[in-house]
Design brief:
By secondary structure, the protein is α+β, with helices and mostly antiparallel strands. It is built from 4 helices and 8 strands, in the order αββββαββββαα. Helix 3 packs antiparallel against helix 4.
Length: 144
Amino acid sequence: MANDVVRTEEAERRQVAALPWRRGPDGLEVLLVTSRETRRWVTPKGGRMPGKTDPEAAAQEALEEAGVEGEVGHEPLGVFRYLKILKRRAARWCVVALYPLEVTVEHAEWKEQTERERRWMPVAAAAASVGEPDLAALIAAFDS
């Protein structure tokens, strides 16, 4: 049994994500994007990057996937897990550290704009829109 636990942990992939946020006219809002394949609402996320800290990598994912830049927090809001479904390989569990990113620049054009939709949402609506319960809880608890 202990070997099964080790194999499962070894199979998990570590990722980083950004939770882009701003103060909108009706209060705190967060920015979600759609995933490329399933079109579900997610936070911008990706693998850790050599030469960048995890917060810097999370900010880079926000720029590429959502077209936003800003001040990224140095400490994660928490972590969440999700099952990444891969087209030609077995599904794999990912453990993601979520970093707050106060948006100061929103680009009209960005790298993945033809592959994703982005949408600002009130915190409660964003929490209700994501499929991962742990991510929903982190978003719901977010108060900048």
